[in-house]
Design a protein that fits this description.
The protein is mostly helical and 104 residues long. The chain contains two helices and two strands. The chain has a two-stranded antiparallel sheet with strand order 1-2.
Length: 104
């Protein structure tokens, strides 16, 4: 007597051709892609803006000036604004320097 063919059960998952090596390759690509996106975001955030965009002016505003800003690097250089800036200038990107601890 001939056995009847069993009907296919579509509820069971098919056997995957995904090997451990392929799985690890995919994981590494995902991690590398995520790291690349994070670095790209960091580089974009560090891009300098024009003096006009930062609303830079060559005089202080309410006692705040580039000399007291964390972004001012000295010698007329700023990490946020393009071009030369004055130590006595001010812009909307001003961020007060953190007070040094332990200096009495």
């Amino acid at each position: 007597m001939r056995k009847k063919a069993m009907p296919e059960n579509k509820d069971t998952p098919e056997k995957s051709n995904l090997t451990r090596r392929k799985f690890m390759d995919r994981v590494m690509l995902t991690v590398a892609g995520g790291a690349a996106l994070m670095l790209a975001g960091t580089q974009q955030a560090e891009a300098k803006v024009s003096k006009t965009a930062a609303k830079y002016r060559s005089s202080p505003k309410m006692g705040k000036s580039c000399g007291g800003c964390a972004k001012y690097m000295g010698n007329g250089k700023c990490s946020a604004v393009k071009g030369t800036v004055s130590k006595n200038g001010y812009c909307n990107l001003y961020a007060a320097k953190k007070a040094k601890r332990g200096s009495y």
